[in-house]
């Protein structure tokens, strides 16, 4: 399970992420958000909704005050743990930290990446076969690039960083999924420099310890495209923001080719995240 948060704090809106301990020790992550009458009501992920309790344990309660960015959360399959990663603000910039829920509490944040540049937008992927954790993020420096690292479920050690994006390209905002046993990663590639257009929506597939990339589409939208890749019932599809109020998606066919792109419109960020992505999923699995 992965959860992404988008948007800035809206006046009066509340949000909280954390872990819930269920009967017999099972754990799930949760997000609660307060919806308000505001054009952009999706709020910060770190504003507490409820006090901590024996069954509800919020994550990073000081995150809003510290200016931390939004988290990625995953839960184990039939186990009592969860893992979170986020970009933590510091005087030197943003660093990637991770925390593991051990069944009763979140462990102190462990720094995974803390170079002189900003490390941003972490995304976690769980391998259900061995419980290992894949971590994706991008480094915002002179040559923005996507990085992959891996750890066992207890986060006891992290592999060396491997670059996912093509050397020399400006790449940002990764999102990953396991499909047919291989890690698939989508991201934005900005050929003319970070923030410029046109740009490409890229898909990289892990082969051994390296990644091979292909272009899925070109977009002229200058905002954040935030591509996501999804896998369910043997089907792979990718969606991204292609205009201010349009989400484009593409589905892979058997054999590896791709269907023509399709477009869904939306009017608010809530509709995009909670309706349009679900609608695309339904159509992809038909």
Q: How confident is the prediction overall: mean pLDDT?
A: 87
Low-confidence stretches: 1-14, 35-42
Radius of gyration: 18 Å
Backbone structural class: mainly beta
Number of strands: 19
Order of helices and strands: EEEHEEEEEEEEEEEEEEEEH
Cα separation of the termini: 22 Å
| Shape estimate | globular
The largest sheet is:
4 strands, antiparallel
With strands numbered from the N-terminus, the spatial order across the biggest sheet is 4-5-6-7
Total count of helical runs of at least 4 residues: 2
Q: Beta fraction of the residues?
A: over 45%
Helix fraction bin: under 10%
Provide tags for this entry.
286 residues; 7% helix; mainly beta; disordered N terminus; four-stranded antiparallel sheet
